[in-house]
Amino acid sequence: MDTSAEYMAGEQEAAVEKVPRKTMVLYGFGQTGAQLFRDAPAALLPLFMTTMLGVAPWLAGIVVLLPKLWVIICDPLMGAFSDHHKPRHGRRPFLVAGAILTAIGFVAMFSFSGFPSPWLAALTIGILFFLASTAFSAFSVPYLAVASELSSDPHERTTILAFRMIFAVAGVIMGVGLAQPLVFALGGDAAAWRTMAMIFGGLCLLAMLATAYGVPRNFGRTVHAAPANMLSRLSVVRQNKPFVVLTVTFFIQSIAQASGYTVVGFVFLYAIADINLLLPFVLVMACGSILSQPMWVKLSRRWGKERAFWGACIGWGLVTVTWLWIGPGDDVLFTLPLWGEMPTQHFLVLVRAFIIGCTNAGFSVLTFSLLTDTIGLQRRKTGNVDEGLFSGIFSATEKLAFALGPVLAGIVLSAVGFQSSTGGAVAQDQEAIDGMIWLYSTIPAGVLVLSLTAFTRFRPAVEAAERDLAQQ
Questions:
Q1: What is the DSSP string of 120-166?
Q2: Coil, helix or strand at residue 340
Q3: Would you say 132 and 106 are in contact if contact means Cβ atoms under 8 Å apart?
Q4: 385 Rama class: left (phi>0) / alpha (psi -120 to 50) / beta
Q5: pTM here?
Q6: Of 188, 351, 194, 359, which Cα lies nearest the Cα of 265?
Q7: From CA 185, how far away is CA 179, in angstroms rounded?
Q8: What are the pLDDT digits (tens) for 331-387?
Q9: Beta-carbon neighbour count of residue 381 at 10 Å?
Q10: Are the C-beta atoms of 429 and 57 separated by less than 8 Å?
Q11: Looking at residue 3, what is its pLDDT?
Q12: What is the pLDDT of residues 185-229, one digit of tens each?
């Protein structure tokens, strides 16, 4: 039985105008820029600070954490602020201003080096990241709210979010797969980091503005006059138990992903000993993600969103554990035209990449689809809802998690003896390499198990909400 569709069936009772494919594509395009900025602090800043600025790994983690603590407050406020101004101005002014300032912030974070001390370097990067994170909040929170407003059909929202996921993959390819190899290809010095930042900052701007001007200015239902008391509005959010359970689940899962994002460059540089394999890895992962989207849309209809979500999470956890057995490629499994010799370890890395792409795509798109369902449940209960406030709280939890991930990684790397440097990557001992592997395998898999424990409360919360609606 499709339980997700069942408890949102009330939304489908009214006639719904289908969202044009063009609108879905332009909405999704913005996630490419958003993904680039999200991945930069998690995958690039720790490496930049530890290998170019001489910042200790634990301090680099703190630099990423502190601005993220601010967005716990900033994101909900930005969501409430955009809700307040939507009836008159729509969400476009937030999307445009956020796009421009986020791109500037992206470039600035990687444009300074040669500091007299690692502490001053950490302080400067921390301030720049704080400002850039605030700008990103102005885009990302209204952007997420749009997903709930474009359609009242829960299955159509899954399709919209599938487009978003496809463009997110493009952001991952560039932010994780291309950015770091590009830096090394350009020489790995400060100028190389600045060049990379200018290129990808420009791509951020293009993608975000495409959404800002491509999606209709006024979308979704007319926003009501929300209660003036912010505490009252937060109380409404807290009383939505399915939203609370989903947010907790998402927060814990994001920590698992963030710890892996933080060390992905380290893993390919030291554990696999071939940084050039990172781009093929990301490209294969992207293929798995894109090709699996129709499957997850169909499974969400056939099994229900929750069951499909469980399947995707369990698959991701199982393949993540297998990173324990990675190492440098020291044999020849077969030879490919244009590629050359393919070691067994490299082949298995690419197999993992495809499976990770499929499973990650599944639980990512279904998480956000379930989010729109919980917001839709609130709409059924009260007749209207603060989409921006709900989205702001959900977004804040993700950003906080992607700050805690680098902190966790920094603590582990410091504990296992990772050596920082100022002129580029230096050799590390086996204990430090083992720490990188743990952060990419058993640690995120263990955190995922905790998230699924929390998610077991989602179905009871939905059923309780349905009973309350039936009694109204």
A1: HHHHHHHHHHHHHHHHHHHHHHHHHHHHHHS-S-HHHHHHHHHHHHH
A2: strand
A3: yes
A4: beta
A5: 0.76
A6: 188
A7: 10
A8: 999 998 888 889 999 999 999 999 999 999 998 899 999 998 998 888 888 777 778
A9: 17
A10: no
A11: 45
A12: 888 888 899 999 999 999 999 999 999 888 776 654 444 544 556
Nearest 5 degrees, angle CA 382-CA 76-CA 144? 75
| b/e per residue 158-191 (b: at least 16 CB within 10 A) | bbbbbbbbbbbbbbbbbbbbbbbbbbbeeebebe
Per-residue pLDDT reduced to its tens digit, 24-66: 889 999 999 998 887 776 678 888 898 889 888 888 888 888 8
What's phi and psi for 152, nearest 5 deg? -100, 5
Q: In terms of residues, how long is the chain?
A: 472
Q: Select the CATH number that applies to the domain covering 20-221+232-471 from these four: 3.30.450.40, 1.20.1420.30, 1.20.1250.20, 3.20.20.30.
A: 1.20.1250.20
CA dist 29 and 38 (Å) reads 15
Which pLDDT does position 13 carry in this prediction? 41
**What region, left, alpha or beta, does residue 220 occupy, with left being phi > 0 and alpha being psi -120 to 50 degrees?**
left
CA 21 vs CA 163, 276, 314: distances in Å: 9, 36, 32
Nearest in space to 356 (alpha carbons), one of 268, 440, 458: 440
CA distance 274 to 304: 41
Token pair belonging to 28: 């999704």
